[in-house]
Automatic annotation (TrEMBL), chain A:
Segments passing through the bilayer: 25-44, 64-88, 95-114, 126-143, 150-169, 175-198, 205-223, 257-279, 310-329, 392-411
InterPro entries, per the entry: ABC_transp_permease (IPR001851)
Membrane topology: Multi-pass membrane protein
Compartments reported by the entry: Cell membrane
CDD domains: TM_PBP1_transp_TpRbsC_like
Organism: Actinoplanes philippinensis
Protein name: Simple sugar transport system permease protein
Lineage of source species: Bacteria, Bacillati, Actinomycetota, Actinomycetes, Micromonosporales
Record-linked Pfam families: BPD_transp_2 (PF02653)
Alphabetic keyword roster: Cell membrane, Membrane, Sugar transport, Transmembrane, Transmembrane helix, Transport
TrEMBL record, chain B:
Organism lineage: Bacteria, Bacillati, Actinomycetota, Actinomycetes, Micromonosporales
Name the UniProt record assigns to this protein: Simple sugar transport system ATP-binding protein
Organism: Actinoplanes philippinensis
Main location: membrane
Keyword match Protease: no
SMART domains: AAA
UniProt entry tagged with the keyword Cell membrane: yes
Length: 422, 504
C-alpha cells in the first residue's frame, strides 16, 4: 500500500460573505470620515489650531489651519475606511482602524481648537491622572478574572478604598496610613466577593453588583453621619506629595508627566509590568492562568484551585483599593458621596477592551482617560458642543470601544465558573 | 486497595472493593460505563475520598487528601477527559504543578529546563512530543502522549490509564499498547480501565471485572471475549449486530460540496459529497474531531453553511430552521446527550415530546394536552424498554442508557425519511447498546435512510451498509463494511491506498 496522505491538500474555496467584519467597520469609518470632513470642516473657523508643547499659549507649538485640518483628517479617516472596504491589508486591519479613529479625533480637535490652543503637556498629564484609577481597577480585574473569578465589584472596591483612605488618613494625619487603609478597604469588599463566590458558589456578577450597592450605601451613610458634621476631624486627608526626579523631569512633555508625579503613577505603571511578567513568566502566573482556564486540570496536578483564587481576588482588592485612594488622596482632597461615579465600571470595560492583559488594560485605560480629559478641556474652552454631551464622552467612548471595536474577546475559559470538586 | 466503599447519596458507586496491583503488571479494570471503575481510580488518585476502606502503597496504609499526595506516593493518572490546558504549550502543561523555577517571590520559571525535561522523558520512553506546540493545536493522539509524558516526568511507579483508547485510531491504539508494554518492562505498573474486550485480551496480565460497583470476577487474558462480556454485563450478550443485507432505494439525503467552519472559524468540513439512500445505513467512521460533528450540525441547520448544498429528496435544507428540518421528517440523535438530547430537569413524558409539543395530538400553540402526553409516554416506555419508575420520573435520574433510549424513542416516534444518529451509544451500557442497534436496523428496514456517525469503529462496522471514512473534514473513501480493519484504520489516519483524490 502506498502512503499517500491528504495533509498537502489545499482547502476547498468557499465564498467569503461579502459584509465581513472588516468591511462593516470600513463602511462605518468611511461614514464618520465623511461626516468629519463635511460637518467639522464646514463648522470650523479658518483660524489656526495650535497644539503647544508648553503649559501656555506661548512657546513651541504645532499649528494648522482649523478648517483645513478638519477636512484633511476627515478625508484621512475616510481613506482608511475605504482601504478596509476595498479589502486592502487584511492582516493589518486593526492598524487601519486605529489610524482612522485617530484621524477622526484629530479632525474633531482641529474644529474645536481652531482659533485657540491645546496644551499638550497638560492634556497628557491629565490623561494619565484620570487613567490612574482605571489602570489600577482594570489590573484588579485582571488578577481576579485570569484565575476565574469575575470581579464586577471594582466600583465598590474603589468607593471603600476612597472612603477608608480619607477617613483613616485624616485621623492618623498620615497619607501613608491612609493609603494602607484604602488597600484594606478594597480587601474587605474583595474578601466578601471571594467567600460568596468561591466558597458559597453564588453567581459572581450578582454578588459583584450587590457589593457595589453595599459599598455605595455604607460609605454614603457614614459620610453623612460622620464626615459631613465634622469634616475637620474626619474628612481632610493629607495629600500625596509630588516627587520630582531631577534631570529626567526636564525632558519635554514626557518629563513633567512621568518624572514629576505622585507615587501612584509609578505604582500603577510598575504594577502593569510586574503583573504582565508575573502572569507570563512565573510559577504563580502559570498556576493562576491554569486555574482560570481549566481548574480541574490544575487540581489533578495538585494545585489548590480555591486557595489560589482567594489569593488573587484579595490581591485584586489591594490593587483596586489603592486605585480608590487616588480619588481622595490625590484628586480631590476629601470624600464625597458616590465620588467614583462609575469609574469602576469603566475600569471593567478597560479590562475587557484590553483583552484581560495588563498592557491591554493600560492602553484601554489611557484611551478612556483621554476621553475624560478631552471632555473637561472642551468645556474649559467653551466648546459649542453642549456640556451634557461632553460629559457623556467618556461613557460613549467606552460603549463604542467595548461593543464596536473589540467584538468577541476570548475570556479565560473558566471565568465566572465556580470550581466544584469531584 | 482494601474494602473501598464510596457512596453518592443513595447510589453505592463502589461496594467493598478489594484490588491489588503488583509491580510490573498491567491490571485491567473491565466494566461497563457507570460500573464504578473511574470512581475507584479517582479515589486512588486522591480526587475522591473513600467512605470506607483503606489504600495501601507497598503495604503501608496511606490517606490521600489530594492528587498531590498521590503523586508524591508515585501514582500518576491519565484521565479519560484530558487534563490539559488548551491554550498552554506542551511544556507548560507538563511543568504545571511541578515547575522548575529560578527562585524569586513568585517563582521565576526556568523554561529552558522544563523544555529539556520534556525532551528527556519523551526520548527515554519513546513518546514523541513537541514541547513548544500549543495543546489545542494537537490531535487527540498527541495530546494523550502529552498526558502520559506528564505523568512519567513525575516519576510514577503506578500509572492509571482511564479509557485511554476511546479517542484513538486502531494504529494509535497499537502504539499505545506497545508503550504500555515497554513501561511494564521498566518495572512500572499500569491500571488499564476500559470496556473494550479486544484490548484487554491483548495487553492485560490480570483482569478484574466490575459491575454495578462490585467486583464480579477476575479473569486471565485467555478467557474468551464472550465470557468476559457475559461477566461484564451479567448475562450472555450478542456482540454482533443482527441484520439482513440492505435493500437500498432512491437517494434521500444528498450533500454536495459542503463547506462548514467550526466555532473558531477554522475549516471543519471541507467539500463533502455524500448520498444516503432509503433503506440503508451509511456509517461515518473517523477519529473524533475530523469534522463529523460539524457535518451533522450543518445538515440539521445548527451551524452556518459556507458553501455547498444539502438536499432532502430534492428539497434544499440550507437556511431552514432546525424545527422545520425536524418536521420535514428528519430524526436526530445528537452527539452530546446531556446537553442537546434531553432536558434533565424535565420528566420522561415531557422529554418524549420535546420536538412535538406544539402540534397535534399533543397540543397547540397555547396548551399541551397532558393526557395525550402521558399516554404517548406509556406507549414509548414499553416499546423502547425505558427503565424508569414512571413517566413522571426526571430524565436526569436515569442511567445513560435509558436517557439515550428516551432520545431514540422520541426521534423514532415520528414518520421519518431520514434518521441521523451521532454517537448513538456513547456512555451507554452494553444491554442498551444492543437494543438501540436493533432499533436502528429496524428503522432502516422500514425504508428510512439512516446516517450513523460514531468514533467507535466496531459500531460503524456492525451497523453500516456502507462506510464513509472522514479525515480532516473530507470523506477519504466510501468502503464496504467487509473492508479489513487495518485498511479502515489507515484511512482514519489519513492514509489512502491510492494517491489521494484531488492531489495534483
Amino acid at each position: 500500500m502506498s502512503t499517500a496522505t491528504v495533509e498537502e491538500l489545499t482547502e476547498v474555496a468557499a465564498p467569503e460573505p461579502f459584509w465581513s467584519r472588516q468591511r462593516r467597520l470600513g463602511l462605518a469609518l468611511v461614514l464618520i470620515g465623511l461626516l468629519a470632513a463635511a460637518v467639522f470642516g464646514s463648522l470650523a473657523p479658518s483660524e489656526d489650531a495650535r497644539f503647544t508643547l508648553s503649559e501656555d499659549a506661548e512657546g513651541a507649538a504645532l499649528s494648522i489651519n482649523g478648517q483645513f485640518g478638519a477636512v484633511l483628517f476627515g478625508l484621512l479617516a475616510l481613506a482608511a475606511g475605504g482601504a478596509m472596504l476595498a479589502g486592502l491589508a487584511r492582516r493589518r486591519s486593526n492598524v487601519l482602524l486605529s489610524l482612522g479613529i485617530l484621524a477622526f479625533v484629530l479632525s474633531f480637535l482641529c474644529w474645536q481648537v481652531a482659533g485657540n490652543f491645546m496644551p499638550l503637556v497638560d492634556t497628557t498629564e491629565g490623561t494619565l491622572q484620570l487613567a490612574l484609577p482605571l489602570i489600577l481597577g482594570a489590573l484588579a480585574g485582571v488578577l481576579g478574572e485570569r484565575s476565574g473569578v469575575v470581579n464586577v465589584a471594582i466600583e465598590g472596591q474603589f468607593l471603600m478604598g476612597a472612603f477608608a483612605g480619607a477617613l483613616v488618613g485624616t485621623m492618623a494625619t498620615s497619607v501613608w496610613v491612609g493609603l494602607i487603609s484604602a488597600a484594606l478597604g478594597g480587601v474587605i469588599i474583595a474578601a466578601i466577593l471571594a467567600v460568596l463566590s468561591i466558597r458559597y458558589l453564588v453567581d459572581q456578577t450578582v454578588v459583584g453588583m450587590v457589593l457595589n450597592l453595599f459599598a455605595l450605601g455604607i460609605t454614603g451613610f457614614l459620610y453623612e453621619r460622620l464626615m459631613q458634621p465634622d469634616a475637620q476631624t474626619y474628612n481632610t486627608p493629607p495629600q500625596m506629595p509630588e516627587w520630582r526626579i531631577p534631570a529626567l523631569a526636564d525632558i519635554p512633555v514626557v518629563g513633567p508627566v512621568l518624572f514629576q508625579a505622585n507615587l501612584l503613577v509609578w505604582v500603577a505603571l510598575a504594577l502593569v509590568v510586574v503583573i504582565h511578567f508575573g502572569l507570563s513568566r512565573t510559577r504563580w502566573g502559570l498556576r493562576t492562568r491554569a486555574v482560570g482556564e481549566h481548574p480541574t486540570a490544575a487540581d489533578t496536578v495538585g494545585i489548590r484551585v480555591r486557595g489560589l483564587r482567594y489569593l488573587n481576588v484579595l490581591l485584586g482588592g489591594v490593587v483596586a483599593g489603592i486605585g480608590g485612594a487616588y480619588f481622595t488622596l490625590v484628586a480631590t482632597g476629601n470624600f464625597t458621596k458616590n465620588m467614583t461615579a462609575g469609574a469602576g465600571f469603566i475600569a471593567l470595560a478597560a479590562l475587557i477592551f484590553g483583552r484581560y492583559t495588563p498592557f491591554g488594560a493600560l492602553g484601554a485605560a489611557l484611551f478612556f482617560g483621554f476621553a475624560q480629559k478631552l471632555a473637561t478641556y472642551l468645556s474649559a474652552i467653551e466648546s459649542p458642543v453642549p456640556s451634557q454631551f461632553l460629559n457623556m464622552l467618556p461613557y460613549l467612548a467606552t460603549l463604542i470601544a467595548v461593543a464596536g471595536l473589540v467584538g468577541r474577546v476570548r475570556a479565560p475559559a473558566a471565568d465566572g465558573v465556580p470550581y466544584i470538586k469531584g | 486497595m482494601r474494602g473501598i466503599t464510596k457512596r453518592f447519596g443513595d447510589l453505592v458507586a463502589n461496594d467493598h472493593i478489594d484490588i491489588t496491583v503488583e509491580p510490573g503488571e498491567v491490571h485491567a479494570l473491565l466494566g461497563e460505563n457507570g460500573a464504578g471503575k473511574s470512581t475507584l481510580m479517582n479515589q486512588l488518585y486522591g480526587l475522591l475520598h473513600p467512605d470506607e476502606g483503606q489504600i495501601l502503597v507497598n503495604d503501608e496504609p496511606v490517606v490521600f487528601n489530594s492528587p498531590r499526595d498521590a503523586i508524591a506516593a508515585g501514582i500518576g493518572m491519565v484521565h479519560q477527559h484530558f487534563m490539559l490546558v488548551p491554550v498552554f504549550t506542551v511544556a507548560e502543561n507538563i511543568a504545571l504543578g511541578a515547575e522548575e523555577t529560578r527562585g524569586g517571590p513568585l517563582g521565576w520559571l526556568d523554561r529552558r529546563r522544563s523544555r529539556r525535561d520534556v525532551i528527556d522523558t519523551s526520548t527515554k520512553y519513546g513518546l514523541p512530543v513537541d514541547p513548544d506546540a500549543l495543546v489545542e493545536d494537537l490531535p487527540v493522539g498527541a495530546q494523550q502522549r502529552v498526558e502520559i509524558v506528564k505523568a512519567l516526568t513525575r516519576e510514577v511507579d503506578l500509572l492509571i490509564l482511564d479509557e485511554p483508547t476511546a479517542v484513538l485510531t486502531p494504529q494509535e491504539t497499537e502504539e499505545l499498547l506497545a508503550v504500555m508494554r515497554s513501561l511494564t518492562a521498566m518495572g512500572k505498573s499500569i491500571v488499564f480501565i476500559t470496556h473494550k474486550l479486544k484490548e484487554v485480551k491483548a495487553i492485560a496480565d490480570r483482569i478484574t471485572v466490575v459491575r454495578r460497583g462490585k467486583i464480579v470476577g477476575t479473569a486471565s487474558p485467555d478467557t474468551s471475549e464472550d465470557e468476559l462480556a457475559a461477566l461484564m454485563v451479567g448475562r450472555a450478550v450478542s456482540l454482533e449486530v443482527q441484520k439482513t443485507p440492505a435493500e437500498p432505494g432512491a437517494g434521500v439525503l444528498k450533500i454536495d460540496g459542503l463547506v462548514v467552519d467550526d466555532d473558531r472559524g477554522i475549516r471543519a468540513v471541507d467539500g463533502v459529497d455524500l448520498e444516503v439512500r432509503a433503506g440503508e445505513v451509511l456509517g461515518i467512521a473517523g477519529v473524533q474531531g475530523n469534522g463529523q460533528t460539524e457535518l451533522v450540525e450543518a445538515v440539521m441547520g445548527l451551524r452556518e453553511v459556507r458553501a455547498g448544498s444539502v438536499r432532502l429528496e430534492g428539497d434544499d435544507l440550507i437556511g431552514l430552521s432546525t424545527k422545520k428540518i425536524l418536521r420535514s421528517g428528519v430524526g436526530y440523535v445528537p452527539e452530546d446527550r446531556s446537553h442537546d438530547g434531553v432536558v434533565k430537569e424535565f420528566s420522561v413524558a415531557e422529554n418524549l415530546i420535546l420536538d412535538m409539543y406544539d402540534s397535534a395530538p399533543y397540543g397547540n400553540a397555547f396548551r399541551i394536552d397532558g393526557g395525550k402526553v402521558g399516554g404517548n409516554a406509556q406507549e414509548r416506555i414499553e416499546q423502547f424498554d425505558i427503565r424508569c419508575q414512571s413517566a413522571d420520573t426526571l430524565v436526569g435520574t436515569l442511567s445513560g442508557g435509558n436517557q439515550q433510549k428516551v432520545v431514540v424513542a422520541r426521534e423514532m416516534s415520528r414518520p421519518l425519511r431520514l434518521f441521523i444518529a451521532s454517537q448513538p451509544t456513547r456512555g451507554v451500557d452494553v444491554g442498551s447498546i444492543e437494543f438501540i442497534h436493533k432499533q436502528i436496523v429496524h428503522e432502516r428496514d422500514q425504508g428510512t435512510a439512516v446516517l450513523v456517525v460514531s468514533s467507535e469503529l466496531d459500531e460503524v462496522v456492525g451497523l453500516a451498509d456502507r462506510i464513509a471514512v472522514m479525515y480532516r473534514g473530507r470523506i477519504l473513501a466510501i468502503v464496504s463494511p467487509d473492508t479489513p480493519r487495518e485498511e479502515l484504520g489507515l484511512l482514519m489516519a489519513g492514509i489512502t491506498g491510492a494517491p489521494a483524490e484531488g492531489e495534483k
